[in-house]
Amino acid sequence: xxxxxxxxxxxxxxxxxxxxxxxxxxxxxxxxxxxxxxxxxxxxxxxxxxxxxxxxxxxxxxxxxxxxxxxxxxxxxxxxxxxxxxxxxxxxxxxxxxxxxxxxxxxxxxxxxxxxxxxxxxxxxxxxxxxxxxxxxxxxxxxxxxxxxxxxxxxxxxxxxxxxxxxxxxxxxxxxxxxxxxxxxxxxxxxxxxxxxxxx
Amino acid sequence: xxxxxxxxxxxxxxxxxxxxxxxxxxxxxxxxxxxxxxxxxxxxxxxxxxxxxxxxxxxxxxxxxxxxxxxxxxxxxxxxxxxxxxxxxxxxxxxxxxxxxxxxxxxxxxxxxxxxxxxxxxxxxxxxxxxxxxxxxxxxxxxxxxxxxxxxxxxxxxxxxxxxxxxxxxxxxxxxxxxxxxxxxxxxxxxxxxxxxxxxxxxxxxxxxxxxxxxxxxxxxxxxxxxxxxxxxxxxxxxxxxxxxxxxxxxxxxxxxxxxxxxxxxxxxxxxxxxxxxxxxxxxxxxxxxxxxxxxxxxxxxxxxxxxxxxxxxxxxxxxxxxxxxxxxxxxxxxxxxxxxxxxxxxxxxxxxxxxxxxxxxxxxxxxxxxxxxxxxxxxxxxxxxxxxxxxxxxxxxxxxxxxxxxxxxxxxxxxxxxxxxxxxxxxxxxxxxxxxxxxxxxxxxxxxxxxxxxxxxxxxxxxxxxxxxxxxxxxxxxxxxxxxxxxxxxxxxxxxxxxxxxxxxxxxxxxxxxxxxxxxxxxxxxxxxxxxxxxxxxxxxxxxxxxxxxxxxxxxxxxxxxxxxxxxxxxxxxxxxxxxxxxxxxxxxxxxxxxxxxxxxxxxxxxxxxxxxxxxxxxxxxxxxxxxxxxxxxxxxxxxxxxxxxxxxxxxxxxxxxxxxxxx
Amino acid sequence: xxxxxxxxxxxxxxxxxxxxxxxxxxxxxxxxxxxxxxxxxxxxxxxxxxxxxxxxxxxxxxxxxxxxxxxxxxxxxxxxxxxxxxxxxxxxxxxxxxxxxxxxxxxxxxxxxxxxxxxxxxxxxxxxxxxxxxxxxxxxxxxxxxxxxxxxxxxxxxxxxxxxxx
Amino acid sequence: xxxxxxxxxxxxxxxxxxxxxxxxxxxxxxxxxxxxxxxxxxxxxxxxxxxxxxxxxxxxxxxxxxxxxxxxxxxxxxxxxxxxxxxxxxxxxxxxxxxxxxxxxxxxxxxxxxxxxxxxxxxxxxxxxxxxxxxxxxxxxxxxxxxxxxxxxxxxxxxxxxxxxxxxxxxxxxxxxxxxxxxxxxxxxxxxxxxxxxxxxxxxxxxxxxxxxxxxxxxxxxxxxxxxxxxxxxxxxxxxxxxxxxxxxxxxxxxxxxxxxxxxxxxxxxxxxxxxxxxxxxxxxx
Lengths: 200, 665, 166, 286
Prior knowledge:
- The complex is a heterotetramer.
- By secondary structure, chain B is α/β, with parallel strands linked by helices.
- Among the domains of chain B are: 12-136, Rossmann fold (3-Layer(aba) Sandwich); 258-318, no CATH class; 346-512, 3-Layer(bba) Sandwich (FAD/NAD(P)-binding domain); 593-648, Alpha-Beta Plaits (2-Layer Sandwich), CATH 3.30.70.20.
- Helix content of chain B is 27%, strand content 23%.
- The longest helix of chain B has 21 residues, at 563-583.
- The two termini of chain B are 18 Å apart.
- Chain C has one domain: 3-Layer(aba) Sandwich (Rossmann fold), CATH 3.40.50.
- Chain C has helices spanning 18-27, 49-57, 78-95, 113-130, 135-158, and strands at residues 9-14, 36-41, 62-67, 103-107.
- Chain C has a four-stranded parallel sheet with strand order 2-1-3-4, with helices on both faces.
- In chain C, α1 crosses α4 (113-130).
- By secondary structure, chain D is α/β, with parallel strands linked by helices.
- Helix content of chain D is 51%, strand content 9%.
- Chain D contains 16 helices and eight strands.
- Chain D is globular, with a radius of gyration of 19 Å.
- At the B-C interface, α4, α5, α16 and α17 of B face α1, β2, α2 and α3 of C.
């Protein structure tokens, strides 16, 4: 077994990271964590996580940006909010997972073939195009982009859905697509403006 | 409004002092600038700043200046008047100045500590200083009024705090009335088996004190009684107490308990409140063998006589002292006391508010108080640890912080749970040999010999898992878990989630204010903190005093605390009451109101406003008259007087108007 | 930061609840706007409506009155009297064009340091948004009339005639 | 009583039976339901991971359209219910976010003031209609049918206004109202796997398996749920569950379906046949 040095140096931390989390919506209470672990105990997925939610909170608070953003934990969160309602310090853990996911996508540090960030992205694309999401098309698209091998395993389910009339191959769409796009583009413009201001 | 401003040349000679308070004030307020600013204000002849005005040299400086510079008024700009007003009044008196020629400016609590911009904070400090200097010119020389103090004391609550306070006062020769709501004194401590960290038996140390209360010639013990009304003021309280009927004459009953044997109910079949519902009792009962007073009582809700009117009253027949009186009525008593000690204790957190732990849903889940009764040799199982189905648990999980350190229930640490959980872990292991798991967030053992007790438990092989349990369920994932209660928790030190099957779960419930704490504090005219415990006058320097003079607090009614701290506090409260009584008199703040007879137009507007009936109307002179002994100095009448003829000392119209002008200059 | 209007607010706090709460805010090192200066009174019931009027007349942009919660008054019922009095005063102030929260009555118990902070911050923000009141400017002419009237009254009273002009 | 109805994407797709039974039951109860005009996808959980503000704006457009009428909006899908409520909270608590979202809406000629109330059909049935009134409509009580109520996550957490977060009971009341027997189990709010059944089947299937297995073990003949994704996970993946763990075969119905059956509505109007695991045996076997 190869020996690995476990010590962490302060230079490895990003002191701005915790500040950033605290400044985002939902991150406000990050620093109040007492590390009781009830979030991990309540989490139905913590048994698959590389870091339990409690550890993610502590790593984020101490500025271990790389460890946090490249963890599987944030992608395993199914947004069931079990941790959020249990947390004795009212830390919005689910929202923190969301904002960590966004940051990971922004920094491009998520695992490439990992289907969850891809799903998130495709979902967004479909909404921008049609305003609504067709589950069949979304799932098909997802498997073709990540792991088409798994798609074969899903054929049985697909046939079952066809049999019960729960599948549709036509994209559903809203009437005023322009209206929705205007809303989304206005936010893009706002963000650009903000970034420009931040630079100057 | 009167415009009789003192003329520039007639202004009194004012001395002004501004305090740095180390760096507490000077780090946010430019003290030198304030000093300079004040020096330029009309009437100010001396203006100084100093590191610590409240220190001896600071006070000396004031006294010296008064003499040397013939100062006629004094303004000190420092901390809250609630803290040091008295200090500087005394300093003024030492310099030969009437202490009420003084005004204090609060630039610490109200400025330096709450603002972040030094320039703005300094400006605000200057406004407040200008207001005080403007107002002090109007101050009058006043004298404090002396009122005699009634030497009797009432103690409310007969737990260990009330017992200790009552005994201390009685031993000092004071007459004490101890009022307790339940049928016996003893409080929560009477429920415990052993006490941490020494593991000495609670009954062995408590019951002698209970007997001492009963036997003490200076103590009148009123159990099954509640305070209904409190009137008066420091040194002179009038208290109304309601005494509930026991249907047994207290002076006749000797506690032989023949009546209980004789009751028409052959079997005890009603939930026994004292044993947390784990045992049964009859309608005629006594809480426990050492109950004090050792007098039985009848529970009206279950007694056949009261329910149907058809009972042969075999209990009364069995009593050879003829103590039974089914016609007993509630009594109302009045008391005159000089001081009151409130020791009304706490309420244990109701675990139904944390449904995830399954209390009430799974019979294997218990509260810590229930376990106290189970491990107690005189409890319902005589100290045997048995589950509700009669089986013996092989594994027991103790969950800490139930109803503590949790924004959804109570935010505070209940302070005693870590230690009592350790005690229960030890007792359960000793009595049953079960595997015991403690689930804690942080182990808090900060008392004398507490850490050593924790160390002892570690050595006994009790499991300590650092993590807050999420849930107690009967959901089995493995064959081992079938038929068990499963606790899901992150072992935060190991870094993963564990599922631990047990037979018995103990919820270490936290301490809360009594359910009626708000009503009680209104009755006694004291305050509660946001969490609902009684508010002490100062968290460090006046921990047993309240904002109402003559009313003291002790024990867990003020905050969660353990027995040693409770007893210490009860002693402190008794000492404070003694200090008040033995002085023989109190000095009252002279902020009372009086009527300027010539200006009173006799409209009677003020008469009905006074909550203390201190204002009467002189029908001959057709003028209002204020009785300054009854006046408590709220100033409501002064604000209402349409002719401006009522003056409130220290808060006169001229003083307040000049303060407004000073701020807005 | 650009120069913004900073309102001046005069506060009357009762000694037992609100003043203590402000002390508590200090001890707890809560941070709030420096625009409010506090005058201590024993009970909110001591506050004569004239104090409020005088504060506005002398240039205050807002007046805050703090007392114990209803039922909690140290003097049993002083705050109820405050409430009745101030309801009437509010109507009068409205007639004078002083409204929209320039005058505010708040119940703050001795334990509510955080409420002191919240109320002061909120009131400062709202009054700042309203802009200066400048009653002294508006009242200059009225003052002149008042002075004349007062001179007249004083002359009368010197003559020894009783007057209830106040 | 009148309501607006926000279907969301699932009720038009895999959750078609939910829409059918919801509309049929509400119609039979005399409740008027109108589909929200030109609604768009709520954004669900996925979009929150991409762009927070846009995700609020997406929901904001729906709320803006709804606000034109003074009616409560019913969102039967858990994700829609959560996202719309979360947006309400976010816009209320965060002025900066509100400014951005409202400005963006205004640029497209929309406006939102924050007046809309988002409801769940279960909330409407229990609190607006009431169990007593529902009882009058029950013609065909489901006597002897043992049902495990499954609430899932996002209706009860974290914004539920009508039930307890730890131990919700509204659906239990409904099950009793239709004459069936409610199975008590501790997993009624445990996650069904959400979208992980699709993205990480090895994890998602396990979560779904735990639920169906425990429901069956406790004697339930059917699971009843209030969310299209929960229904899809518990119902649709049982073949895969059988391959990976063991065959469980327990049908998952919507609460609107059992209510409709008890009210005597025809199965065809309630989409009973749309279940991949047939409910026929469970319904007949009682």
